[in-house]
Fold:
Amino acid sequence: MKSRIKSFWQQRTPREKVVASLASVFLLITVVYPTCVEPIVAAFADQSQRIDTLQGTYKVTPDVLGRYSQLVGRRKEIDTFYSQADLSADPLSYLEGLLKDTAQAAGTYEVIPRPGIQLGGKYTHKFFVVKFKASSYENLVAFLKAITTGKQPMLISQINLDKQGAGDSLNVQLEVSGFEAITK
Structure:
């Protein structure tokens, strides 16, 4: 068969050989390249991109795992802390009780509730803006300690202090949030 093809090719004129060669090149470009070569090139490009992505992941994995283990440890600490907290009571009444007892701001405080958020179907995260006058720094410090570490710990996101006159009197504004268990 090889000899037949060779003799057939030798019997062609130079013009026929050029036309046949051009037709073969055209066939390779239009049929073989898109069906065979392009998918292979695309596969290698995709593989190269995945290798680059995996190398990047490989480089950051130790840092991510270290951060993850820190966060797991911190979560256990928080879970332990909040497991001892009484989240069944309303944060608003707890906050008002602290204001009366610890901050000694009876009659001069204002608690403004903000919309809350449900967390995981078990808890409601409630937000408050608290305004009061503290008669001394010691009362303010005791109040802040009680609000963050008391039997129903709350989170303080912002504190604004404004000193009034020459005395120890302070106008205090806090943004506070607390958690309440949802009973079903």
About this structure: The chain has two domains: 2-81, 91-181.
